[in-house]
Amino acid sequence: MSLNDTPSGERIHIGFFGRRNAGKSSLVNRVTDQELAVVSDTKGTTTDPVTKAMELLPLGPVVIIDTPGFDDVGDLGAKRISKTRLILNRVDVAVLVVDITEGIGDCEKLLISLFDEKKIPYIIAYNKADLMQKIPSVRDNEIYVSSITGSNISELKEMIARSGSVKKDVAPLISDLIDPGDTVILVIPIDSSAPKGRIILPQQQVLREILDCNAKAMCVQHTELDSALSGLKGKAALVVTDSQVFGKIAPIVPADVRLTSFSILMARHKGFLSTAVRGAAALDRLKDGDTVLISEGCTHHRQCEDIGTVKLPAWIRQYTGKQLRFETTSGLSFADDLSRYSMIVHCGACMLNDREVLYRMASAEEIGIPMTNYGTAIAHMHGILARSLEVFPGLYEEFVNG
Length: 402
Fold this sequence. Notes:
Shape: globular
Number of helices: 14
Structural class: alpha/beta
Number of domains: 3
Largest sheet: 6 strands, mixed
CATH architecture of the largest domain: 3-Layer(aba) Sandwich
């Protein structure tokens, strides 16, 4: 996979913050070396967050986010500020752009406090340095730049790269679970809810990691799994299935062949699997009248067999036998008030970066709302969660021992 093909959820997210007219958009254009954002002398030109996936050397694949002014006014301004606050939940590195003619005021102090609260590494970029006769000394996370002359832009990129490089390592999807030469069977059902002419992102990513490991991948629909298994000279090292057909394929896969799902692999990759496993148990505690939030990290056209709005609610109602209410969110929106939900069932989050996923997880944990994901919930409802965790010995032992 080339850097340009790197999914947004796997990229480091870099946000530019500050007051209106501090020069955020001009600085973004300099850093990206393209006219990403509209530039004007009029305050408030940037009215919505502007994002761009690109390669930023020497850091690599990133998402650059230009945000509206954090000092915006009026009802519309308050909405823009609210959107900027949401951006903070997915930013790995923040650049606070300060107009040197204004200096650091209450707006900048509030942003710095939010960076500290959310543990976001940040850089203070004093813009319009071309207006200064002498550049004063700075601290390690400060730099004087000019979006007009381009002064210190390369140095700013280096600072961003250093801050981004401290981003915590994340677990691979599958590469640590297989060896070169292994055969992995990927079960990919093709129904009316499958995207036309392609396979979905988690399936692409798992397939690529298998190939990178010099292992062999066999892609089949669930109806061909039996013949695929019997046709192998040896046995498969692992079967990875779309969660929707977990119940159909589990009886087909021999007990000595490891079995898990794309969604479970993605939950581990995003740092969410242990929480998802614990959260799945809440399905057994649901009561009549409870409300379940089903949240997806992407937006897509709803089909008649849509898993989030059709299949999962039906499966949960059937499993629990309870009269339940369901609400849904999608994309970057997430419910502001989680207290009214009895549990949250999240998608695999392939389109969200790990910081956004961990923010959502922490928001639920803070008020004691159990949260799980599609694959983990479906495995639990089919009574095969323990088996789907055998591929992770530590977590499996923790699960079976209670």
